[in-house]
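User: I'm putting together notes for a lab meeting next week and I want to include a structural view of one of the chains we've been expressing. I don't have a solved structure, so I'd like a prediction I can at least talk through. The sequence is below, exactly as it appears in our construct file.
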Amino acid sequence: MVYTEVEWEPGVKRRWRKITSAKHGEIDLAAMFDPNTDVVAYAYCRIDSPRDLNVRATFGSNDGIDVILNGSRVFSRRAKRNLTLDEDEALLGLKKGENHLLLRIDQGKAGWGFSFRLPDVVTRSPDHKYRIVD
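Assistant: Thanks for the context. Below is the predicted structure for the 134-residue chain, given as structure tokens.
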């Protein structure tokens, strides 16, 4: 397993790894991490936008989720629930150029996972850096 280590803030390092989903649009975190009770996971991607743009995002989670765009929380839900694709929705105010998207997915017990899509735009994803195509 290959990890990328990033210094999140001075003196605090985090490890990231690229994930490819076996199920289209769904990431099964419970299958990847142990222990997987009363924990959280973070998912990150970079989105490059050709201009300032409001984009609809649809997502789901098992259990809770926070959606953080460029350092600001744009959605938060605390729930004990099963994953349903596209259960939640938020408008992302992308700025021209690089945008940083961070998801925080809570886990109580049992199933744990998430989904995230930008259904109204065309994207390309070289090296897991997503680019919106006009």
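A couple of points you could mention at the meeting. The CA atoms of residues 64 and 79 lie 5 Å apart. The radius of gyration is 15 Å.

User: Perfect, that's what I needed.
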